[in-house]
From TrEMBL:
Coiled coil: none annotated. Keywords: Calcium, Cell adhesion, Cell junction, Cell membrane, Cell projection, Disulfide bond, EGF-like domain, Glycoprotein, Integrin, Magnesium, Membrane, Metal-binding, Myogenesis, Phosphoprotein, Receptor, Repeat, Signal, Transmembrane, Transmembrane helix. The lineage of its organism: Eukaryota, Metazoa, Chordata, Craniata, Vertebrata. The keyword Magnesium applies. Its main location: membrane. This is Integrin beta.
Length: 759
């Protein structure tokens, strides 16, 4: 990626990727290499000979500017903190220095404070169908105050009402209907769009008093103008009296709603401007501006940290549940037909909203991305969209978010940016100042109009020339008008050659700039681009066998390797035989392989000999004749067996053991008397053979005759007794069978006699 970026300056290089560095060493480039070759990954630059001190590689960082600890306070504590002194999110301000492609990660902590102040504004539909509901709401102030004291000691409540736009066809505009839109003897107030009846107050009795004076109004169509009212409640913060605390808006109705576009029915085409238009606490521009869209409402509710509770009847539950899915930090409760359950509905909805924290960030600058990972209660961790939120949070619980911010490009004007992250429905936020690393430090040390850059035609910075407009070349030596001049091409041809830059580059300002290969590891170089690093001899499918570097089509081998493809190893370790000799002393080691010179021997170390005796068998007769004066070579011992030094030892334990420097063979052989004798055979570094032999052979003792004879006799007697017992047993069985047969015949004879007498 670094090379493909074709960076002409250090700034362009570091924007190509987080692993790209720029070598500012002046003599770093080889002949034919473009300025962009200074930009590469750190390992490649280092391998090309650029010291780490000469590599520009700025990294991103972060600094916390404000880091107040989250508030630990119990309900009913002696100290009374102002809302702005309570901290639920940490840190509050930080600076991130971002380099393109390099993420910066920081941790954000959120803790629900106990006894946190609450502002609740009750916005009620006063169309005729809500008549019985109004009676129950009149006593809502004091009753709700009592219930909310269980949650917070700082609670304020306000009240507003809405009906519909005051134009046809939403209401009847006849004078009589404008005075009293209800039929019969019903006493109803004139229709209106939205009224702020009571700004937020801590006096519950005042709420009851003012709400008690309200009267039902009426309109023609079923959907109501509630969206106009919600918009004004959200944006008229001063008139409503919102504080920077938990803000709840309870929207109570038994009907649907109009939204953007519906105003055309009344001839209203101007889109809602999202601004406050309250005069004497009444919305005065309902006839001028259309209803707000759902997206517009979402934006304003979020900007003003308002959490919405829709208290609607069973009939309209499906509609408002769909609306809830579009409005973050909102809840829906089922309102009874006369609003008798409104207090419990508010308590349940508040608990549901406050048990979930959802992080929201403002609009991101172009080229900046953000991701979240949540660390919630009970070890629940989430990423992606679910990483923004944690659920089932109780008062006093602490959760953590890991936020990752990455720049994918530098802003065009290189200006700093600010983004804000906040939990939905809360006024606190984290302010993040973004500073972008788009230039290298060495660029600030550049020399404008430097004489190095062809008499001042460029700025010499970071080891290279950044050419002025209209100039080109490594040293800005040419103007753009001269680039295609045929006179310049002559400087780019080798002697006796017609090829410009060896057909591997292009001629710019009389100098070859070698072209790049698709594989960025393959590079053309040289004054005429005649060299490359990929057309060297290969071995095992690898350039230079993987044991060298290809420079200008010739392999430069690593130490211990030689050959045109660096495929010849000078290491003799693979040729070392088990006796410590190279090729067993019977061959030469060539390129790490034994070339056996003795035709009887073969194998990787010339140790295999199909027709040879082993060391022990080979020296058995000589050891026997010299140590014990017997054996086949007894008569010729002094002539044939004096080629080794012999040492006698008392026992096998005294024989040399494995681990000594000289190769050693342990032998066990039989002599002419069938006795075992033990010896070792070794050859030292000087080629001298040494034999150590146990001085006393182990001869097998003769058999003990008496036990053998006694055992044989005892065995014969026992076998005879066993046969006799078996014969006796068989005879007893036979006699018993014969006796039984006799008894049976005897009984038959008696029966015959008795039968004859009877006749």
């Amino acid at each position: 990626d670094c090379i493909k970026a074709n960076a002409k300056s250090c700034g362009e290089c570091i924007q190509a990727g987080p692993n790209c560095g720029w070598c500012k060493k002046p003599d770093f480039l080889q002949e034919g290499e473009p300025t962009s070759a200074r930009c590469d990954d750190l390992a490649a630059l280092k391998s090309k000979g650029c010291p780490m001190t000469e590599i520009e590689n700025p990294r991103g960082s972060q600094q916390v500017l404000e880091n107040r600890e989250v508030t630990n306070r119990k309900k009913g504590a002696a100290e009374k903190l102002k809302p702005e002194a309570i901290t639920q999110i940490q840190p509050q301000k930080l600076v991130l220095q971002l380099r393109v492609g390099e993420p910066q990660t920081f941790s954000l902590k959120f803790k629900r404070a106990e006894d946190y102040p609450i502002d609740l504004y009750y916005l009620m539909d006063l169309s005729y169908s809500m008549k019985d509901d109004l009676e129950n709401v009149k006593s809502l102030g004091t009753a709700l105050m009592v219930e909310m004291e269980k949650i917070t000691s700082d609670f304020r409540i306000g009240f507003g009402s809405f009906v519909e736009k005051t134009v046809m066809p939403y209401i009847s505009t006849t004078p009589a209907k404008l005075r009293n839109p209800c039929t019969g003897d019903q006493n109803c107030t004139s229709p209106f769009s939205y009224k702020n009846v009571l700004s937020l107050t801590s006096e519950g009795k005042k709420f009851n008093e003012l709400v008690g004076k309200q009267h039902i109004s009426g309109n023609l169509d079923s959907p109501e103008g509630g969206f106009d009212a919600i918009m004004q409640v959200a944006v008229c913060g001063d008139q409503i009296g919102w504080r920077n605390v938990t803000r709840l808006l309870v929207f109570s109705t038994d009907a649907g709603f109009h939204f953007a576009g519906d105003g055309k029915l009344g001839g209203i085409v101007l889109p809602n401007d999202g601004k406050c238009h309250l005069e004497n606490n009444v919305y005065t521009m309902s006839h001028y501006y259309d209803y707000p869209s759902i997206a517009h409402l979402v934006q304003k509710l979020s900007e003003n940290n308002i959490q919405t509770i829709f208290a609607v009847t069973e009939e309209f539950q499906p509609v408002y549940k769909e609306l809830k899915n579009l409005i973050p930090k909102s809840a829906v409760g089922t309102l009874s037909s006369n609003s008798s359950n409104v207090i419990q509905l508010i308590i349940d909805a508040y608990n549901s909203l406050s048990s979930e924290v959802i992080l929201e960030n403002g609009k991101l600058p172009k080229g900046v991305t953000i991701s979240y990972k949540s660390f919630c209660k009970n070890g629940v961790n989430e990423t992606q969209e679910d990483g923004r939120k944690c659920s089932n949070i109780s008062i006093g619980d602490e959760v953590r978010f890991e936020i990752n911010i990455t720049a994918t490009e530098c802003p065009k004007k290189e200006q700093n940016e600010t983004i804000k992250i906040k939990p939905l429905g809360f006024t606190e936020e984290v302010e993040i100042y973004l500073q972008f690393i788009c230039e290298c430090e060495c660029q600030g040390e550049g020399e404008p109009n430097s004489p190095i850059c062809h008499d001042g035609n460029g700025t010499f910075e970071c080891g290279a020339c950044r050419c002025n407009e209209g100039r080109i070349g490594r040293l800005c030596e040419c103007s753009t008008d001269e680039v295609n001049s045929e006179d310049m091409d002559a400087y780019c041809r080798r002697e006796n050659s017609t090829e410009i830059c060896s057909n591997n580059g292009e001629c710019i300002c009389g100098q070859c700039v070698c072209k790049k290969r698709e594989n960025t590891n393959e590079v053309y170089s040289g004054k005429y681009c005649e060299c490359d690093n990929f057309n060297c001899d290969r071995s095992n499918g690898l350039i230079c066998g993987g044991n060298g570097i290809c420079k200008c089509r010739v392999c430069e081998c690593f130490p211990n390797y030689t050959g045109s493809a660096c495929d010849c190893s000078l290491d003799t370790a693979p040729c070392m035989a088990s006796n410590g000799q190279i090729c067993n002393g019977r061959g030469t080691c060539e390129c790490g392989t034994c070339n056996c010179t003795d035709p009887k021997f073969q194998g990787p170390t010339c140790e295999m000999c199909q027709t040879c005796l082993g060391v022990c068998a080979e020296h058995k007769d000589c050891v026997q004749c010299r140590a014990f004066d017997k054996g086949e070579k007894k008569e010729t011992c002094s002539q044939e067996c004096m080629h080794f030094n012999m040492t006698r030892v008392e026992s096998r334990d005294k024989l040399p053991q494995p681990g000594q420097p000289d190769p050693l063979s342990h032998c066990k052989e039989k002599d002419v008397d069938d006795c075992w004798f033990y010896f070792t055979y070794s050859v030292n570094a000087n080629g001298e053979a040494n034999v150590h032999v146990v001085e006393t052979p182990e001869c097998p003792s003769g058999p003990d005759i008496i036990p053998i004879v006694a055992g044989v006799v005892a065995g014969i007697v026992l076998i005879g007794l066993a046969l006799l017992l078996i014969w006796k047993l068989l005879m007893i069985i036979h006699d018993r069978r014969e006796f039984a047969k006799f008894e049976k015949e005897k009984m038959n004879a008696k029966w015959d006699t008795v039968s004859q007498e009877a006749f």
